[in-house]
Design brief:
alpha+beta
């Protein structure tokens, strides 16, 4: 009996030791797995931060080149040399804007800086086109370039200061990415936030530009045609809340006035959503929702239907879609006003639709608010057949329509828009419906995201 009891006790001890060893083994495996996961996470964070830093250094390089090239343009008397310099500025500007948009920064903290870079690119390519016609810079243009050079130099110097802080490991982009929407807003102690806000305030003072981009950015320093009574911030808030009712937003924070802009107004925000209301007339100038977008559940066709309905609901009539671009789970549609069968490109509104649930997450109506008025549209003095004679032999004309396009110097022209195919490539060619002369050519670049104009 004693032996049997001893055997049972030994068996219990062995079983207990076995269980203990298994638990210890599991703990070791868990520890190793945890350390491996932690190491991988740290490695990924370092790799991502290195990519962000390299992108930021590239932005600085772009801006340094821009300000140097602007200085050279201002002393150059050669149109050939100016073409080279101006096209390089355009390329550097677009590159800097693209990289800056990919950095994990709050959109509002870099909005004016991005706009400056985009408009600078559009403006310089316009000057380059004029130089192709052997047109020299006039005194007004040289003064503008001098002002732009000073702004670019300031931007370069300030970004250099931020770079110095990054080099001292005071800034980790991956930390900014994890709190870009909320904590950056709450803490002015954040070095990147305060630096970019300081830069942003100065960039808002840069000169307005007259330039002719691909019809989506044409407003430069055009005096707005927007009419209506002036409103205060309380009335503006009331309008913003009414507009954002579809997002179930019931409270907004006042974020200040917009002064250095074509349309002065008030900015409000709530979590991921920001909106601007014009001081004159109380119109929605823009709205941005930076929420995380989930997996797509609707296609582009459905998104377009929702964008059209949205414009109708906010009482914009006779708007027709022109171009679209799909990126990061959302499609942005460009709409222009149509009257008497004529597409009026200056009267532009952009609507951005999230493809996960069809919600409108972005609106920009500045082009429409600045340019729209009750136009008296001239009758064409040349026929489409006559106008098409200006198109190169061998081009296949696919279709044509009457349009009004913006031009340099705050003017508009009635044109035929010919969509043509030439040597396997698609183009939009605009021919003046009064004179029959070509005015502008865009190449249509098709990719999975949409159709771009170049």
């Amino acid at each position: 009996m004693v032996c049997k009891r001893n055997l049972l006790e030994r068996s219990d001890i062995l079983n207990s030791n076995k269980k203990t060893n298994i638990l210890l083994g599991l703990l070791v495996i868990s520890f190793i797995w945890g350390m491996t996961g932690y190491s991988q996470k740290i490695a990924y964070k370092r790799s991502l931060d290195a990519q962000y830093k390299r992108m930021f250094y590239d932005v600085i390089g772009n801006v340094e080149t821009i300000q140097s090239d602007l200085s050279k343009v201002n002393v150059s008397t050669s149109t050939k040399q100016n073409i080279i310099l101006l096209t390089d500025i355009m390329s550097q500007s677009y590159s800097a804007q693209d990289k800056m948009s990919q950095l994990p920064l709050n959109h509002k903290s870099i909005m004016k800086t991005e706009k400056f870079l985009t408009q600078l690119g559009d403006y310089t390519i316009t000057l380059a086109k004029e130089a192709l016609d052997d047109k020299h810079l006039n005194e007004k243009e040289r003064k503008k370039i001098s002002e732009l050079q000073k702004s670019a130099q300031y931007l370069s110097e300030e970004l250099g200061k931020v770079q110095s802080d990054i080099a001292k490991d005071k800034i980790e982009f991956t930390d900014i990415a994890s709190k870009a929407n909320k904590k950056m807003k709450e803490s002015n102690a954040n070095i990147m936030a305060t630096s970019m806000i300081r830069i942003e305030e100065r960039m808002g003072e840069t000169p307005e530009l007259i330039y002719d981009g691909p019809f989506s950015e044409h407003i430069g320093n055009i005096k707005p045609r927007l009419k209506g009574d002036k409103i205060d911030k309380d009335k503006a808030k009331e309008i913003a809340l009414k507009f954002l009712k579809y997002k179930n937003i019931t409270e907004l924070n006042y974020d200040g006035r917009i002064k250095n802009n074509s349309i002065p107004g008030y900015i409000f925000n709530s979590e991921n959503v920001s909106a601007s209301i014009s001081e004159t007339g109380g119109k929605i100038v823009w709205m941005i929702d930076t929420r995380q977008i989930g997996q797509p559940s609707i296609d582009k066709k459905k998104a377009l239907e929702l964008a059209k309905k949205f414009l109708k609901d906010i009482e914009y009539k006779n708007m027709v879609p022109t171009y679209s671009l799909t990126k990061d789970g959302a499609t942005t549609f460009n709409f222009c006003y149509k009257k008497e069968g004529v597409s009026i490109y200056p009267d532009l509104i952009k609507v951005k639709v999230a493809l996960d649930n069809g919600e409108v997450i972005g609106v920009e109506s500045q082009g429409y608010l600045i340019s729209h008025y009750d136009r008296k549209i001239r009758k064409p003095e040349v026929t489409p057949e006559k106008a098409s004679q200006s198109i190169i032999d061998g081009a296949k004309i696919l279709k044509n329509k009457l349009t009004i396009i913006p031009t340099e110097g705050k003017k508009e022209k009635l044109c035929y828009e010919f969509k043509v195919e030439y040597k396997g490539r698609d183009f939009l060619i605009y021919v003046d419906a009064i004179t029959g002369k070509q005015q502008k050519i865009f190449e249509l670049i098709k990719n999975p995201d949409g159709t771009l104009t170049m």
